[in-house]
Amino acid sequence: MSDGSDHGSRPLADREASDALVWDGAGSLPRLLEIMARLRAPDGCPWDREQDFASIAPYTIEEACEVAEAIERGEMGELRDELGDLLLQVVYHSRIAEEAGDFAFADVVQAVSDKMLRRHPHVFGPVRGAPKADPAEVDWETLKAAERAEKGERRDSVLDGVPATLSGLTRALKLTRRAARVGFDWTEPRDVLAKIAEEAGELAEEIGGEPARIEEEFGDLLFVMVNLGRHLDVDPETALRRANAKFERRFRAIEAALAAEGRSPEQATLAEMDALWDAAKAAEKAGKG
């Protein structure tokens, strides 16, 4: 790891050399690192200079989501740009850490490279020049447990280490996966469906009652739905994102159809919009056929 002795206060590279790198279209990663250093420099961008880990974190999450959306849309040019934005977030956090003397971008690259070697002994061997491990004998959980032990990390529960900052659906998925490892799980999807029916009934009983109880039962129903997705090998975030996109497509089709008649949704009846929804749905199915 970098000792940070010259981080933060060290001068930038010679300005002429820096300008040459910044404006070098083929400068690749060193160019991006230099651009970030210039943005954070005393004479850099005021907004970029005042940011810290906490203020940048929401943008990091947003950029990761935009990468996922570009993949969902199958737009390669868009994916290229979004991956660049996500890479910029890594460079940004690394630069802030370098200025504080904690670590630098090179340390991030070294750490993840070393991790990939450790976790893939069936590809690279346990050490350089050694025979590769049998893929069937590679247990990622054992490897990760060894890494935690080496770092002195202690886990009192199988649920430890699931970030609280994850989205609700993703965290529910990870929590139930952890519990399933030790046998706390339903046997098959039909068992989960029965639990969903039970939770839906409990929610129905609370409708019209205390808001806190309604929220609790609604949360229980969502949680079991995530469990069903896990049993069906369906990622809940992906499924919901696609359902959102489908709803948006069909509702926009309703708006377009009404606009062609010189009307807006506010000027249409529910029955009319339902009929247009069914038409949009039929058109999508016909297009897929």
TrEMBL record:
Residues 51-124, 190-250 form the NTP pyrophosphohydrolase MazG-like domain. CDD domains: NTP-PPase_MazG_Cterm (cd11529), NTP-PPase_MazG_Nterm (cd11528). InterPro entries: MazG-like_dom (IPR004518), NTP-PPase_MazG-like_C (IPR048011), NTP-PPase_MazG-like_N (IPR048015), NTP_PyrPHydrolase_MazG (IPR011551). Pfam families: MazG (PF03819). SUPFAM superfamilies: all-alpha NTP pyrophosphatases. This is Nucleoside triphosphate pyrophosphohydrolase.
